[in-house]
């Protein structure tokens, strides 16, 4: 009996031990070796499965010895099946190949660079964005990409924020969402405050530096951002993200999706709210947004409808902090009226079709409509002459009142709609890849101002408009871009775009001048280049591109209508190398951007005293950009980028106002400069990121950013500049897989760890006044800055169901 019991126990022990085998491994991108978090791993013929963690690692326990078939899948990659023999001798290293272009991916391919395109670009995917997405606006999430400088009016990264790439401001950076133009048609700007938490609905972003490839909408005059929103998910999901931080910052996001229903239909939705008091006094933000997407996903055709909206209220911090107060009161805000706010809502509607029409032909067609409406409110205790509002002096008894306190609202009510398309043909031998694309869009904007309160009221009613003008802008373009494999791994690229812009405006401007006029432009924008792929995973490239750009709204409304500035032209040369290996990647490129007739502020006045922009005949930007990343081992990864540049205007003339002892304006004085730096164009920008994974599921990151000296105007004077700065952020993230939910991810980000006092943005102006006790004049310069917060934090938790 004892022998029988011992034999039975041994048999049971052996069966239990045999069933304790486990499969361990990592999932990586086959081309780059980058871990793929969230990959699905299933044992064929069973209901056992798991997903890879943030390091791409996975583990499945409780398995009997023998052979098992492992099925691995990941969105955007080819699924694979792998035979595993247990017990396992060593962990698996599974490398998934990127999937071929699907119909949904083709939605953005018409306006994007591909692996063989001879231009400078970088792709930031959802996982990279989510690491920092704790409430700050999209520009701040891109802060560590090459040649990038970001800024925030409120100083905390929430509210009005902006970015510059290679010194190029937002009005010269083309932005599209699913190939549809986002830039405001009149100002060419992008106002990220109107799209709060949009990063939570972004699949990836391609940043092209330089002219890049042809796109839709405003001219690419230094860089472009091509955004693709969330693509479908195979399985149903629900997520909720919550974060809190300094300055009473709060972010709450809820997302959910059906996954594929009947293998064909899917609906996804997001609802977000972000609030912050801001670092600057009273510079609060109250932001709301939603995103809804529904689609049909056939084998060869995709039809999607995207509806997204953003509503914002921000207290104005536009004036900045005067230099005299910067040391003593960095949070100073000159506005004190309780409702000195900006209020705007923008609603976007997109109808998108993408399909495979034949084995070598794909098509994309999109209709879009954007409706925006809002105002900013201002209390005007100064500059309040009734004549400035078209109101006659008010008679009270025998007294004539010509000025009084006023509260005004300046409105913008606009509609933007149109269509974009692209057709992609690939020859049967694969050597020719050609895209024919373009679009036609119309902007219809109404600008008007209202007086909603007066200290002393006269013959005017509330909501009376003291100015009102309308503008219509038609923007049409067509492009043909193609890549041809001349010989094995040598590619010839050509891209030719015709763009027509017709802009007309009519009415009374906010300075009460009558503005009526129209302008028509026809631009031809050619691009040519070569790329060569070596067998060692390297791509060499070189290209030449031309871009033309029309003046913006202020150039028409502020300049005398008989002296509209000339369009700008950019000639761009890019040359470099891209290398992608299993454990490292790097890139290096040289660029030259030569401008003809670049428009800059000079201090020159128009006939009613408004400052206008003028063409400067010749200017340029030239530099070298380096970037790379290296995985030292399973725990350490380092990466970063450097950009060295020279940014010059050959000849620049500055105009400064002259005032007499009574502060009456008496004229202007001109001063000429040669070979001066272009404003806001630092000669050096760098970033360095160190990632450390001390234990499973925990990542510690140190993020460093350096920006060299920026001049506030084009005179290259150090007393009109922003000091260089170096900031360091600390980020910690930990993922937990408790079983009752799919994942809980905890994040903490300490911004400006070492409490650097810095200002990435500002403005300046100078004027002459009489020198005390003499007959000569002295030049007075006033600088204003937008300071960023010292050490501050954001902490969040994300729950995936």
Describe this structure in words.
This protein is mainly beta. The chain has three domains: 16-96, Carboxypeptidase-like, regulatory domain (Immunoglobulin-like, Sandwich), CATH 2.60.40; 106-229, Beta Complex (Ferric Hydroxamate Uptake Protein, Chain A, domain 1); 237-800, Maltoporin, Chain A. 5% of the residues lie in helices and 59% in strands. The chain has five helices and 44 strands. It has a 22-stranded antiparallel β-barrel. A hairpin with a 5-residue loop joins strand 36 (684-692) and strand 37 (698-707). The longest helix has 17 residues, at 2-18. The two termini are 52 Å apart. Residues 11-19 have low confidence and may be disordered.
Number of helices: 5
Looking at how many chains there are and whether they match, the oligomeric state comes to: single chain
Strand content: over 45%
Distance between the termini: 52 Å
Sketch the major β-sheet: 22 strands, antiparallel, barrel
**Structural class, please?**
mainly beta
Q: Give me the CATH architecture of the largest domain, please.
A: Beta Barrel
Overall CATH class of the largest domain: Mainly Beta
CATH-defined topology of the largest domain: Maltoporin, Chain A
Return residue spans where pLDDT drops below 50 for at least 5 consecutive residues. 11-19
Radius of gyration: 29 Å
Looking at the structure, what is the overall shape? Answer: globular
**What does the average pLDDT come to?**
90
DSSP strand tally? 44
User: How many domains make up the 3D coordinates?
Assistant: 3
- Helicity level: under 10%
CATH superfamily of the largest domain: TonB-dependent receptor, beta-barrel domain
